[in-house]
Amino acid sequence: MKIPSNLKYTKDHEWIRVEGAFAFIGITDFAQGELGDIVYLEIETVGETLGKEEVFGTIEAVKTVSDLFMPVSGEILEMNQALADAAELVNSDPYDKGWLVKIRMSDAAELDELLTADEYKALISE
Fold it and tell me: How remote is the C-alpha of 121 from its chain's centroid?
């Protein structure tokens, strides 16, 4: 299982990759493995500004539907359009081609409240 060290993580199994004032959000390799085959994403919050830990969409696997939570506050700028036709990219490449949304962060200081790769590893191995 991959847990890239350049990302920050939430206890709800989302990751965030910061690129300047923007950030990309997805779910972790652990989360996609637990969910199983992902078949659909519903993200209707593009253009909205949401607070940290607010739900920005849902992810549907063969057996379950799960909420997706914002790791930090920000405006959702776009959804990964590749997932509209190929939701399974979240399973096969959760940290690169399987990203979910791009945001403009409202408060970069919130990143300090997230887990490092080592802290996330400890969380999922409990």
Answer: 16
